Please model this.
Amino acid sequence: MFSYLATVEYIEEEGTYEINYCDFPEIQGVTFSKENIELEAEETLTAAIAELITSRLPVPSPSVSTEDAFIVYLPILSCLKIALSNAIIETNTRKSDLARKLNINAQQIERLLDIHYASKIEALEQALYLLGYDASVTVTKRASLE
Model:
């Protein structure tokens, strides 16, 4: 759903690995360990996406593969929250109107959109459905890492 591409560059003078995101040129992650690149890439990207959602800005769709890039996978729950945020923006729906349709309060809508909050998938699916979207999950075998 929302798997983004990033590149990594070793900065020898600083002894760090710099992570740059193809779809988010203003975002940069840094780690000191090669083993932590994927984890740092996900954490940095998640924090940046949380800021976009809070600011009520659309989260861009991932770009197609580029050379020397690796995929930053986001959890399914995060992907559903991104999809819901984008759907709210795209349909020009007020959060209070969606809360009323879902028979929940405004604070619960904020939790549905909070990328760090463990919402129930069923609630996100229902919210997306009410906005005219269907959610589905696809499971595929990954290519070998080595």
About this structure: Residues 76-130 form one domain.
